[in-house]
Amino acid sequence: MERYRLLENWLLEQFPDRQFTLSPASADASFRRYFRVKFDDGRTLIVMDAPPQQEDCRSFLQVANLFSAAGVHVPEILAQDLSHGFLLLSDLGSTTFLQALNANSNNIDSAVRDADASRLYSDATNALLKIQRVSRPGLLPDYDEALLLRELNLFPDWYLAYHLQVTPVAGQKAQLDAIFRLILENNLAQPRVFVHRDYHSRNLMVTSPNPGILDFQDAVYGPITYDLVSLFKDAYIRWDEERILDWLIRYWEEARKLQLPVAASFPDFYRDFEWMGVQRHLKVLGIFARLNYRDGKSGYLKDIPLVANYLRKACERYRELNPLLALLDRWESNKPGLKVGYTF
Q1: pLDDT tens-digit profile of 146-205?
Q2: For an engineered disulfide with 261, which of 35, 80, 141, 191 has Cβ 3.0 to 4.6 Å away?
Q3: Which residues partner with 88 through β-bridges?
Q4: Percentages (nearest 5) of helix, strand, coil residues in the chain
């Protein structure tokens, strides 16, 4: 309540002669909170509350400037108080890609539904290409080995230890470490660009111009396939592999035309995409478990099966990753009531 009062008083300083109301705008998986400021004339703005002891607004401001310069649609920064962690932003609306796509899932006309999805994902791909085209080193933190490995370790630290309640024995731990080294070898060898890090249907808003892009404060300079995994192998909505492949080919062809540093052959590019996905999905399984068991946010548990299915599919396709699949089978068989080998 104390932070809420501080936030409200700050807004009163910004708008001393205007009446407004505050309401929650969205929940975040971090310590950030967002509120919608609604004025008597119907105009709305968004205020971010990011406690300085846990969050740093400066990264949000830096990435907002970089992405805006790339020509993509991000919130405009209207006022800031970095000492308290408050930012006043333009409002990109309340309809995420996920909400729009789920609403369209009730449409009995599959052709209309598919056209809507294709339009949204085409817009998202075009925006991502714009961001990648202006990428250069030295502006954002490197997505280096230490960070990639720290993310991978969320899998044993939280998914295995808390969700499956297993502790790998010495031989299994050695196997997992060896698999992690293979994953990192691929990830670190990929060409690097600006990486949003959570470029998916919950952080993309249906706007004009489309999309509005949110939650970019953790952006880094890293593997070119990472944001494509976030977008096409989304933890919150499932697409058929044939459709993902079609969207990915379209991206790759356009990236080649724009002379972005993608692999020269599509099979090589697809392998990079899949291996990057293994890193992300191991990390996400750990994050979702941590959100539940540490932070009390149980809503993410329902998204675990889809992410686990992505991981399993990739492990089946690549011989070097088959040992990880065997480990998953063994570990998951120890948890009562957990179905091994998720299907949809």
Answers
A1: 999 999 999 999 999 999 999 999 999 999 999 999 999 999 999 999 999 999 999 999
A2: 191
A3: 47, 79
A4: 55, 15, 35
Question: How many residues are given for the chain?
Answer: 344
Q: Phi, psi (5° rounding) for residue 22?
A: -115, 135
Task: Please name the amino acid found at residue 216.
Answer: F
Residue type present at position 167:
T
The closest alpha carbon to 231, from 328, 317, 310, belongs to 310
Fold of 2-90: Phosphorylase Kinase; domain 1 (3.30.200)
* Between 153 and 110, residue with greater pLDDT: 153
- Say if CB 48 and CB 86 are below 8 A apart: yes
The correct answer on CATH 1.10.1740.10 for the domain covering 97-332 is no
CA 93 to chain CA centroid, Å, is: 19
Q: Token pair of 334, please? A: 């120890």
Which residues fall within 8 angstroms of residue 342, CB to CB, at 6 or more apart? 305, 306, 308, 309, 312
| Per-position DSSP letters for 258-312, written without gaps between them | TT----SSHHHHHHHHHHHHHHHHHHHHHHHHHHHHTT--GGGGGGHHHHHHHHH
Tokens 């009730």 -> residue:
106
d(CA 342, CA 307): 10
Q: Where are the domains of the chain?
A: 2-90, 97-332
Unique residue bearing structure tokens 């480990």 = 327
Q: Which residues contact 16 (CB under 8 A, 6 or more apart)?
A: none
Q: No. of H helices and E strands in the chain?
A: 12, 9
Give me the chain's average pLDDT, please. Answer: 93
| CA gap 91, 276 in Å, rounded | 33
Separation of CA 258 from chain center: 24
